[in-house]
TrEMBL record:
Residues 12-127 form the Thiamine pyrophosphate enzyme N-terminal TPP-binding domain. Its EC number is 2.2.1.6. Residues 199-334 form the Thiamine pyrophosphate enzyme central domain. Residues 395-541 form the Thiamine pyrophosphate enzyme TPP-binding domain. It comes from Parasaccharibacter apium. The lineage of its organism: Bacteria, Pseudomonadati, Pseudomonadota, Alphaproteobacteria, Acetobacterales. It comes from the Bacteria. This is Acetolactate synthase AlsS. Gene3D superfamilies: 3.40.50.970, TPP-binding domain (3.40.50.1220). One of its GO terms (cellular component) is acetolactate synthase complex.
């Protein structure tokens, strides 16, 4: 990559946008240029911000979303007008539903052509408004800093999400004749704890409860929140259940209080704990993660909701007490007010059965097909390589359920999962983001053979960036998560099969290292090789999904 020149004085609205991005602390921008936005890319050439050219706009937003999730500050993606911007939609919907701060900037035809039937005219502001927190157009050079500043504030304020700014080509090219202020350097407004009287009310309810359970959601995995939650659990000794996106919030020393992760299907020991609870403390939980009607089947049972914003009320999620403000500070104050509790022991038997069931599942896991691996054989091998500093990025598919239920991680934001829109194709772009943020650390990402091909064009980008990642592909030549649900509903599958790909050869054609494996030993060897390799490594694993129906089977204890 060529050395960038020092920044020149602002001359156009494009330069002013870049000044705002720099002031906000943006280090990387991902995007694809085009005639309506190329002035902005030209301005970035004179900036210390690193520009990364992606191969698809959707992946550019996924990468920006990964940066946003890991750092807590908005990642930035840029696209040109028309289909360039429309390709941002899925990434923005994912970011907004997952709570990942992302700023996207899109080119547009000149203002005089916005309502004409001309090349790439499109009302992108209206189109993207439903999937963003903020969607606006810079209508004049004087509004540049205002719009960009407000976009950043919307992306990074609770709950975080995606935002979009459209810049007509003539505005982008307009000369700046006045010294407009830069607004990108505003720090996010810091919230305090919930009011003390509400915290006392919550503590009193906890002390009164006989079988309280803690339910952790996506915001629990924010590092400062996770630290406060761990202190709370140590003090109260309460059982803890997490959604998929709360992975890593519970530390290793608290494993004995952890009842597993819940999501998608009401059939886990975590669901059993929630069914038995006489009070639930939901921390950082968003109903989009796991439908309340599935886990809360006692409508009269009190719920304490600890979050950054009030709950969106649901027939099955109508909190009796809400601690709204800084999650970390509210939990810290609640910990002091509650003190030690003995009520958590009432559910210890369920926790013991859960841990025994996990051990039993691994012990029994064995593929009956020659040259294929059982899902838990793969995860068991992975456990030996997943150190505390390794980030795991999961795509969407039945494999992500196996990982969510069985792969233990103990660092906040160590495992990135999509369970809002359940978007396919996120794993590889997220892995590149993790490598960008922490280039010295290895990243492991996992896809099915269906989801990998939805973002595989940016494997070239990973090679170009020398991303320090290992990407594991579970191969079965089906959209398997769809398949198992169709078979359960209809007794057969439809439209879920596709042809084979030699993924090792595919990876090598991009300049990455590609490895095909067919046994536990060859997978171990491939992962060792991947850990020693600088740059992306793709490992293809034929998976035996014969036990997949068990993912949906009811838990006997829940059928009583």
């Amino acid at each position: 990559m060529t050395q960038k020149k020092s920044h020149k004085a602002a001359q156009t609205a494009a330069d002013l946008i870049v000044r705002n991005l720099e002031a906000h602390g943006v280090d990387h921008i991902v995007g694809i240029p085009g005639a309506k936005i190329d002035r902005l890319f030209e301005a970035l050439e004179d900036s210390p911000i690193r520009t990364i050219v992606a191969r698809h706009e959707q992946n550019a937003v996924f990468m920006a979303g990964g940066i946003g999730r890991i750092t807590g500050r908005a990642g930035v993606a840029i696209a040109t007008s028309g289909p360039g911007v429309s390709n941002l939609a899925t990434g923005l919907a994912t970011a907004t539903s997952e709570g990942d701060p992302v700023l996207t900037i899109g080119g547009a035809v000149g203002r005089a052509d916005l309502l004409k039937l001309t090349h790439q005219s499109m009302d992108t502001v209206s189109m993207l408004r439903p999937v963003t927190k903020y969607s606006a157009e810079i209508g004049a050079p004087a509004a540049t800093s205002e719009v960009i500043g407000n976009a950043f504030r919307a992306a990074e304020s609770p709950r975080q999400g995606g935002v979009f700014v459209s810049v007509p080509m003539d505005v982008l090219n307009s000369e700046i004749t006045e010294d407009y202020p830069v607004m990108g350097n505003r720090n996010a407004v810091k919230a305090g704890p919930a009011p003390e009287d509400v915290i006392k009310e919550a503590a009193a309810a906890l002390k009164k409860a006989k079988k309280p359970v803690v339910l952790l959601g996506m915001k629990a995995s924010k590092p400062e929140n996770a630290e406060a939650i761990r202190a709370f659990v140590k003090q109260t000794n309460l059982p803890v259940v997490g959604t998929y996106q709360a992975a890593g919030a519970v530390s290793k020393d608290l494993v004995s209080r952890f009842g597993g992760r819940v999501g998608l299907f009401h059939n886990q020991y975590g669901d059993y704990l929630l069914d038995e609870a006489d009070l639930v403390v939901a921390i950082g939980y968003n109903p989009i993660e796991y439908d309340p009607c599935l886990w809360n089947r006692k409508s009269a049972r009190p719920i304490i909701n600890i979050d950054v914003v009030p709950a969106q009320l649901d027939n099955a999620f109508n909190p009796e007490i809400e601690l709204i403000g800084s999650i970390a500070l509210s939990v810290q104050h609640l910990t002091r007010e509650t003190g030690a509790l003995t009520s958590g022991a009432a559910l210890d038997k369920i926790l013991e059965v859960y841990r025994a069931s996990q051990k039993s599942a691994f012990a029994k896991a064995k593929s009956t097909q020659q040259g294929m691996l059982h899902p838990l054989e793969i995860i068991k091998v992975m456990e030996d390589f997943v150190a505390q500093d390794i980030t795991i990025c999961l795509d969407m598919g039945s494999f992500h359920i196996w990982h969510a239920r069985f792969l233990e991680v103990f660092r906040a934001r160590q495992m990135l999962i999509s369970n809002g829109q359940q978007t396919m194709g996120v794993a590889l772009p997220w892995a590149m983001s993790a490598s960008i943020v922490n280039p010295a650390q290895k990243v492991i990402s996992v896809s099915g053979d269906g989801s990998f091909m939805m973002s595989s064009m940016d494997l070239e980008t990973a090679v170009r960036l020398k991303s320090n990642l290992i990407h594991i592909i579970w191969v079965d030549q089906h959209f398997n998560m769809v398949r198992i649900q169709e078979e359960k509903k209809y007794g057969r599958d439809a439209a879920v099969a596709f042809g084979p790909i030699d993924f090792a050869a595919f990876a090598r054609s991009f300049g990455a290292k590609g490895i095909n494996v067919n046994s536990v030993d060859s997978l171990k060897a491939a992962l060792r090789e991947g850990m020693e390799t600088q740059g992306p490594v793709v490992i293809a694993v034929p998976v035996d999904y014969a036990d997949n129906p068990a993912l949906m089977n009811p838990l006997p204890e829940l059928s009583k």
